[in-house]
Amino acid sequence: MEIFLQACVNGLLIGGFYSLMGMGQNIIFGVMKIINFCHGEMLMIGMYLTYVFNTYLGLDPYLSIPLVVVCMFALGALIQHTLITPSLGTKSFTNLLFLTVGLGMLFQNLALVIFSPNYRTITTSYSSKTLSLGPITMSLPKMISFIGLIIVTIALFWFLKYTSTGKKIRAVSQNPIGAEVVGINSKRIYIITYGLGCALAGIAGALLTLFYMVYPMVGASFSFKALIVVVVGGFGSIQGAFFAGIFLGLLETLSSLIVGPTYRDLTVFVTFIVILVVRQMIKMRRR
Amino acid sequence: MLKVENLSSGYGNLEIIWNASFHVDDGEVVAILGSNGAGKTTLVRTITGMVRPKSGSVIFNGEDLAGKSSRTILDHGIVQVPEGRQLFTEMSVYENLEMGAYNKETKARLGESLEFVYRWFPKLKERKNQAAGTLSGGEQQMVAVGRALIGLPKLLILDEPSLGLAPNIVDDILSVAHSMAKEQGISVLLVEQDITKALRMADRGYVVENGKITLSGTSRELEENEHVKKAYLGI
Fold this sequence. Notes:
The complex is a heterodimer. Helix content of chain A is 77%, strand content 3%. By secondary structure, chain A is mainly alpha-helical. Chain A has a single domain (2-286), classed as ABC transporter involved in vitamin B12 uptake, BtuC (Orthogonal Bundle), CATH 1.10.3470. Chain A is globular and about 55 Å long. By secondary structure, chain B is of the alpha/beta class. Chain B has two domains: 2-77 and 153-233, P-loop containing nucleotide triphosphate hydrolases (Rossmann fold); 87-152, no CATH class. Chain B has eleven helices and ten strands. In chain B, strands 6-7-8-3-9-10 form a six-stranded mixed beta sheet, sandwiched between helices. Chain B has a four-stranded antiparallel beta sheet with strand order 2-1-4-5, with helices on one face. In chain B, helix 8 (167-184) links the parallel strand 7 and strand 8 (187-192). In chain B, helix 3 (93-99) runs parallel beside helix 7. The longest helix of chain B is centred in the C-terminal third of the chain and has 18 residues, at 167-184.
């Protein structure tokens, strides 16, 4: 029972990361109808930024989050303005596919050149401290990250629901023509949206750095998981991505507990395929 | 108030509107009539800045707005109720109306504008927290008109408000538009396929055929025109 509870907590934590990645992807998809294939690399850049701020400036990884957010938003806005917005005009799905996949490769290789393929870690004075809540034990960094994920998720929902910019993002995502009718500058919203998506991935990276190794390919698996979250949660649906992310995290930890870590990915992908097939069958029947 | 002169526009190399000229005076209801595919919506989109004109001018209160951005044109007070309503279906009725306030002035006056809209469409007040996509077609059209009114229009453009609605609801919407012009001094440009209904509401009208304005006159004159009778009224 205790092991089970412990696995659930770990699942929620890893699920929180998947949610954050998936929600970022889905905000971008909702507004521009593109899949951001370099989303995992944005997480990787966020991790390296945190690493650099810690190693060379002595900044605490958690306190460097605002700085990471600013850098990632700026990077995202720049990519959107100079590369993606011009390509959107061509209305070619393959152009945008190659663009974001290519950007991902570019960032991976840049990281290889700058940081070498070596695994890197950050240690702080509280890295090895643990907290016990009844039967559940958690390392302090994981605990802080967990709380951080909750705060960021709530802040994101609040931003989209109540702020003027958040409403504009939803408006463009639901009806681009209607948005133009009410005078929304969609190019500006594109820049904010992509910047926001990258910033969310950056935050995920920063929150991950204390208990995950940093290396140039670290984003790949997260990219992939974010894609699953997007497909299961529904393209463009923020709430869907949130729940799908949590579900995926729980599924991963619980399946490695129940059927063993060797079959973890197998269980995850079989479940993924079953969900897709069943959903399609329900859709067919409705017609 | 609005004076369109020799306006041509279209998409890419395709020219859809040829040399259109017409005008709307203060407090007037003017109808642009024509069948499906005549180019009416393209004309609206050109006036509101969503499609760039190829040539010609759109003079509004003395200023040429041809080729300006849709936001700039909104700022001058030309607000449209687009074809197909184009609501934000997953947002509440209230949020949809709120989105109609696009600049400082309209945001500052949002409260009184909302009261104004709710007075004309009391149903919207009852349903303000409901998602717009769950409303009936007629109610959705009310939201679209309400959203435009929140933008404090000097000229209100209604693009095909009758589309897919029951006849009595079309009458309601059109009579609200008529009252806007006659009681509130908002000029109305009504773009319609349903020529009988449109001519009943409008002071004057223009007939668009294959992207050209072929006829113009007062509503009475158009109703009695032999070509209009034969081609559109089925008499």
